[in-house]
Amino acid sequence: MGSWALRAALLCLGGALVCSQFHSLPHRDGLIPARGQATTQEPKAKTPEEEEPVTKDCGIAPLKGAMEGSRIIGGTRATIGAWPWLVSLQVQDGNFLVHICGGALVRDRWVLTAAHCTKEASDPFKWRAVIGANDLSQSSTYVRNIRVVAIVIQPDFILETFVNDIALFRLRKAVRYNDYIQPICLPFDVFQKLDQNTSCFISGWGRTKEEGNGTNILQEAKVHFISREICNSKMSYGGVIPNTSFCAGHENGTFDTCRGDSGGPLMCYLPEHKRYFVMGITSYGHGCGRRHFPGVYSSPSFFKQWLTEHLSQGSTTRVFNMDMVRCQILMALGAIILLGVT
């Protein structure tokens, strides 16, 4: 009995070492670990593809003309494929998936969103990323439902004040691009000062009025940049807008994001590049569609170093995922079998 127990213990120990060899290193700052799960990085030379923080072909919607679209709150239904980088981030609730926040596909395994969205659930395995969808109540051959294996929070994020409200969700597998699924460009090395003449759009499945319900049909609306002088004035947010955030919408509240739109991108079309860029991430607002209180957006351009560091990891990033769980289960079953034969 003692020898078999010793063998079982050695088997478990050996299995744990084998698993940990591939999956276990101390987690980096900013990760929300779920019950000991961690994102790790191994010292490995990057391939030429991994040197770039985003794909070269980004910000183009094959099924939408560059300046076509709407004229969310005050918005209209988006046409299928209009915003191929829009992601519905959903949480498992029993047998159902519930839309919580929006997100933007910025690489084939990375979704950009707001850090405060993780307040709903910090365990990455509870999240799903639905990509390529227009109507969340309908299934389509081009829609992809992919598990999330890691959540990376900007380490200086403060929930109470929405400072540095930005996060990355890493997908279990890379998504294949098509007419309905494309990445949006990040505003790195793009000299662009947003003003009221910049064509920007919001889109999401959030509430269509402040006390209303969310919608299964993707909505869109055109908005414009609102200066910090106006947005942070006494008649508006009174100086509480973080330095890494800005306002966009409409001064009288005609067009705005609302609950359920958080994490979604503020998409601005830059004609000199003929592409869309994610200039902002929907963060918060005082109510929805209220006069003098437009939506507040985190600016990804302030987080270039942090984003590039994670996005450039590519396939070199090791994530504690279901493979490790399976490995541990197999080791435990092996130990039980050995003990059972005694």
TrEMBL record:
The Peptidase S1 domain extends over 72-312
For whether the record's keyword set contains Transmembrane, the answer is: yes
GO terms of biological process kind:
proteolysis
Task: Show the Pfam families listed in the entry.
Answer: Trypsin
Q: Name one GO molecular function term.
A: serine-type endopeptidase activity
Superkingdom of this entry's organism? Eukaryota
UniProt KW Transit peptide keyword: no
Region (Disordered) residue ranges read 33-55
Q: What is this protein called?
A: Transmembrane protease serine 12
Q: Which organism is it from?
A: Cricetulus griseus (Chinese hamster)
UniProt lists the gene as Tmprss12
